[in-house]
Amino acid sequence: MPQSPAAQAGRKSSRIQVRNRKRILEAALEVFSTHGYRGATLDQIAAEAGLSKPNILYYFEGKEEIHVTLLNQLLDAWLAPLRAIDPQGEPLDELMGYVHRKLEMSRDLPRESRLFANEILQGAPRMVPHLDSVLKPLVDQTAAVIEGWCVQGKLAPVDPRHLLFSIWATTQHYADFEAQVGVLMGEVDVHTGAAAHLEALFRRLLTPGLIVENS
Amino acid sequence: MPQSPAAQAGRKSSRIQVRNRKRILEAALEVFSTHGYRGATLDQIAAEAGLSKPNILYYFEGKEEIHVTLLNQLLDAWLAPLRAIDPQGEPLDELMGYVHRKLEMSRDLPRESRLFANEILQGAPRMVPHLDSVLKPLVDQTAAVIEGWCVQGKLAPVDPRHLLFSIWATTQHYADFEAQVGVLMGEVDVHTGAAAHLEALFRRLLTPGLIVENS
DNA sequence: GTCTATACCTCGATAGAC
DNA sequence: GTCTATCGAGGTATAGAC
């Protein structure tokens, strides 16, 4: 009597099982990110994955488990640039590097961005525990580092958390609101313009000792 | 044979009809903004409005018409601060005033913010025509004004459209991602801190002639 | 492991009494 | 104008053959 892979926690999986789970999650990312949790259907995911609907449910207990698995699995990669900030590095370089890496992620991984945006926008019903246990400690830690840089005078005084919000908001905007950006910018190279703009925006904010030029 | 109010285009409406349509739209704003279009149900809207489900459908042709009506009706109020930018005013004051008005709208009208965010995030299927006919001309016009200010040296050189994106993204972030902001900031006064942060962020970007202090 | 068939439910919309 | 009752589509999930 074969047990569903969804139920067998620690058991070893065959290559085909691993491959199918991957295909399902890839398809689910595509569908959930464009239609939201409620708007996505198992039919769409099955079609996208090239499997039958019952076969999907052989690998996952249900729609919700697919979604939660996806969120938790992608959060690590999504937060990698934040973890990569080096407390020993040059403060301005570290933060500007973070801005540009986040912007590149919006360009290269827009589906991930929209997946999280959809979830948080609706109150993060399936992610609050994870936000609390994973994101919050990481942000607290990073905030302390930035705070230290400010005290040392390596950065202009800034509230670390609001700074992070601004970086997230401005960079992810290009992925999350792409429909609107597309209408307003037409066919121009959005990414290059955005990179230059955000470079100016955050460098001016963070550079210590800026004053108005005497004329 | 009574005709549904939904069908009678130009006919005069009774006071009770006006009131009920208002109650339905108010309820719909609450429900659509927290669950998205697909996640919202007529049952929820009916319960929120204190009416029965068929009664809702006496006033509107269907779920979609309620949503479209809501979007088109609220877009005007939502864009008011942008229209309020005065080409004759002091450039820096006009733009900083816009930033603060947008931030106050995120605090006072978070449901409107999330309603639009949900819609645009999923490709704005029911709003692209309106974005094109209403938002785009307004943005083009405002961009020209800002461009002029830059040429006159009243502002630091800046791409007007990316500037607007940054203002929208940073201010609306506090409404759209409130669930995440709440987890990361706890019970502190978010609005006051955000206002101070955005004041610094955009004033530094836009002030002409900033240089690094000689020490 | 994967399929067809189907049970069962939720939801949008309608019928028809009042 | 508003209600109860209900239809039919579409959705998640399961049964059971292969």
From TrEMBL, chains A, B:
<protein>
    <submittedName>
        <fullName>HTH-type transcriptional regulator RutR</fullName>
    </submittedName>
</protein>
<dbReference type="Pfam" id="PF00440">
    <property type="entry name" value="TetR_N"/>
</dbReference>
<feature type="domain" description="HTH tetR-type">
    <location>
        <begin position="18"/>
        <end position="78"/>
    </location>
</feature>
<dbReference type="InterPro" id="IPR036271">
    <property type="entry name" value="Tet_transcr_reg_TetR-rel_C_sf"/>
</dbReference>
<dbReference type="InterPro" id="IPR001647">
    <property type="entry name" value="HTH_TetR"/>
</dbReference>
<dbReference type="GO" id="GO:0003700">
    <property type="term" value="F:DNA-binding transcription factor activity"/>
</dbReference>
<dbReference type="Pfam" id="PF08362">
    <property type="entry name" value="TetR_C_3"/>
</dbReference>
<dbReference type="InterPro" id="IPR050109">
    <property type="entry name" value="HTH-type_TetR-like_transc_reg"/>
</dbReference>
<dbReference type="GO" id="GO:0000976">
    <property type="term" value="F:transcription cis-regulatory region binding"/>
</dbReference>
<dbReference type="GO" id="GO:0045892">
    <property type="term" value="P:negative regulation of DNA-templated transcription"/>
</dbReference>
<dbReference type="InterPro" id="IPR013573">
    <property type="entry name" value="Tscrpt_reg_YcdC_C"/>
</dbReference>
<feature type="DNA-binding region" description="H-T-H motif">
    <location>
        <begin position="41"/>
        <end position="60"/>
    </location>
</feature>
<dbReference type="InterPro" id="IPR009057">
    <property type="entry name" value="Homeodomain-like_sf"/>
</dbReference>
<keyword id="KW-0238">DNA-binding</keyword>
